[in-house]
Task: structure prediction
Amino acid sequence: MSLGAAQYALRQRQGAGARYDAAGAPHDDLLLVRRGTAYCARNLNALSDDALAEPSPRQGLSQGALVVGLCLEARSLAHHLQWARTGLAPEEDAILGYAPADLELGSTLPPRAIRTLFDHSCVHLDVEWRDLSDADWTKYLPGDPGRRVAETPGQRARSIWIAGFQLAARPRLADVPERLREAVTLARGGQSITP
Result:
């Protein structure tokens, strides 16, 4: 993939420390997950601190626990991407996912900590994606040998858009990318939807 003159000039101004997606990365899925992260963050930031303690559309989870689940998913996935990239197993998260006790403990965090955890875990995951080489994107995910690294952005996009939709005060299906509308509709958990 060749860079246009404007992109080349931008990269020169940003310097050697800037990170970019590999040419072989699934760019459409990465764009979808990054937009979903922004959508979810917007809906999270619109919630009051008290609203984080209220029930979410997911049975048995508060709004805060729903967010913490997203954070734990991102953290675990970031560790597994790092493992795929470096070959060094993480000290924890040997199995992709998280323990219910982690979700329970995380949901007791103060609202400010939940919001910070969301921001940090999303940035950490994005950095891991940007550090992957073309060869890394073709590998299988350690801890889940049936899944390729290249599938992770699409799967994360699905979960972050669903959660963002469930956090919305007035969910509108028109806000969701067309390819994810069916998944969001199935996961809406009884929420009314504005077309």
Q: What stands out?
A: The CA atoms of residues 56 and 66 lie 7 Å apart. The mean pLDDT is 89. The first helix runs from residue 5 to 14. Strands lie at 140-141, 144-148.
